Structure formats: structure tokens, C-alpha cells
Amino acid sequence: MYGYLGYGFGPTFILVIIGIAISLWASWYVKHTFNRYDQYDSSRGTTGADAARYILDQSGLQNIQINRVSGNLTDNYNPGNKTLNLSDSTFASTSVAAIGVAAHECGHAIQDKNAYVPMRARAALVPAVNLGSNFSIPLIFVGILLGRNHTLIMAGIILFSLVVLFQLVTLPVEFNASGRAIKILSSGDLLEKNEVPMVRKVLGAAALTYVAAALSSALQLIRLILIFGNNRD
Q1: Which residues are registered as beta bridge partners of 69?
Q2: pLDDT tens, 40-97?
Q3: Given this model, what pLDDT does residue 104 score?
Q4: Which residues cross the membrane (predicted)?
Q5: In what order do the strands lie in the sheet with 65-69?
Q6: Phi and psi based region of residue 71 (left: phi greater than 0; alpha: psi -120 to 50; beta: remaining)
Q7: Percent of the chain as helix, strand, coil, to the nearest 5
């Protein structure tokens, strides 16, 4: 029993360390890249909020409200109430980085309008993911405490795999939104041509955070399988 209760340490713990290192690096890199290009004001002086309003209106999304929310890089599009929420670091900023982030969130709004399949799939997974996030690890430990109950342990691993699946489905959603943003900004209506590569770097760095999250969770899933897959009665 001790081996199971102490499963947090051992040879496979290196997978956890790798996952944490990747996540920390990705988080640092996106902040570093955003801060770098946040120093470059767009030549046209457009704010993130103005850019978002322009893109949404041009896309036939005049009904979507743009809100200002507190925080740094807490920008998001809420498909539930059809609102675009821009953080303090984006809303009133005229930087190239802020305009890129705003355009990315508009990309999600356009996905929603066009019923983009991966976005719909991600939304459908939310209830199962919430279940997996809350109960996967507790189920595994209950299985351990109940005499290495393989059924409970495997149920926990399956629930955790739903979290990994959700993060994998998130990748095309985020990459597609960034691709839409780059295409829109390349039209020349909001940014000069020499400013677009800066946006591409900001959004590329942001995408790495989702890749890192997926890798970190996948490594944890592999670790759980390695630990418990070979420990049946």
C-alpha cells in the first residue's frame, strides 16, 4: 500500500518535473514577448478595443458587446453571453501586441458565428472536463485506499484523460483564431505591413502556452498509466 500512497515520487516523477518546466517556460515566454511588443505603438494609434469593434462590425457581429475586465492578458470571448472581454493591458492600449490579442479574441467570435467544429467540440466537452478535473485524482486515491481497487483507479485515469482530450481539442481552436487574426490584420486596415510580423510573434508565443498545458497534462496521464497500469492484483 505504501508504494501507491507514495506514488508522487519515484522514477516517473521526472515527467511531472518536465511538465512543470515546460509550463513555466511557456508562461514566461508569452509574457516576455507580449511585454516586448507592447512597447511598440501602432502607427495608426488604434486601441485594442477600437480594433476589436472594427473587426466585429466588419464580420457582421455588431451585436457582440466589448467589455473591459481587470487583469493582465485575461482577454477572452464568452460564447455563452456573446461578449468580448478585453483586459486592462489590451482594452485602451495602442500597442501592436494589444491589437493582436484583441484580434485573436475576435477570431473566437467569428468561429462561434461560423459554428467552427473544434470550438463546438470543446464546448461539448466542458461538463465532462469539469468532472475529470474535480474527481479524477480523488477517485484514484480512493481506489488505492480500498485495497488497490483497479476499477476505481482506472475510472480516475479515464476521467483525467478527458482533461487531456479537452486540451488537445483546444489547440486547433486557438491556432485557428490566431490564423484568422493574422489574416484580418494583414489586410492593412488596422496595421501597417511591417507591424504584422510583430503580432505573429505575440500570438505564436501565446499559442505555446496551450501546447505546454497539453504536453504537461499528457505527461501526467502517461505517468498515471505507467504507475497504475502495471499494478493489478
Answers
A1: 87
A2: 999 999 999 999 999 999 999 999 999 999 998 899 999 999 999 999 999 999 999 9
A3: 97
A4: 12-30, 123-146, 152-173, 202-228
A5: 65-69, 83-87, 76-78
A6: left
A7: 70, 5, 25
d(CA 92, CA 86): 9
Cell numbers 483507479 correspond to: 153
Give the count of beta carbons closer than 10 Å to the beta carbon of residue 171. Answer: 16
**What is the pTM assigned to this prediction?**
0.87
What value does the mean pLDDT of the chain take? 91
Overall average pLDDT of the 207-218 stretch: 95
Nearest C-alpha neighbor of 204 from the set 231, 178, 226: 178
CA distances for 113 relative to 63, 76, 116, 132, 169, angstroms: 11, 16, 8, 29, 18
Instruction: Give the number of other CB atoms < 10 A from CB of residue 14.
Output: 11
| Closest to 87 in 3D by CA, of 104, 70, 111 | 70
Helix, strand, or coil (residue 2): helix
Q: In a 3-state reduction of DSSP, which class is residue 231?
A: coil
At residue 1, the pLDDT reads 35
Please pick, among 105, 174, 192, 195, the residue that the annotation labels catalytic.
105
Q: What is the amino acid identity at position 94?
A: T
- pLDDT grade, residue 7 (50/70/90)? low
